[in-house]
Design goal:
By secondary structure, the chain is mainly beta. It is 8% helix and 26% strand.
């Protein structure tokens, strides 16, 4: 494991002496729609407006949060269910 002499947020650390634990991000089912607007689209997220291009996906989480996902990233990281809920 790498030793970091300093971290801009937490200051000097010896990360090797810390107790590292494995963690798995919990799967969350989202709604997703691939949008084919020729000019792309803009999504207002909780972090501001985010531009997306033709073929990208609009993803909406159960809490209503929404964001665009690049088509290639979406296809690598999401699995589309056979039927909608």
């Amino acid at each position: 494991m790498a030793k970091f002499d300093s971290d801009p947020i937490v200051g000097p650390q010896n990360w090797e002496s810390q107790q590292w634990r494995r963690a798995t991000k919990k799967p969350v089912t989202v709604l997703a729609l691939q949008l084919e607007f020729p000019e792309g689209f803009t999504v207002t997220t909780k972090h501001g407006k985010v531009a997306a291009k033709k073929g990208d996906y609009l993803v909406i989480a159960p809490d209503g949060d929404r964001w665009p996902v690049d088509r290639e990233v979406f296809e690598r990281t999401y699995e589309i269910e056979a039927t909608a809920r």
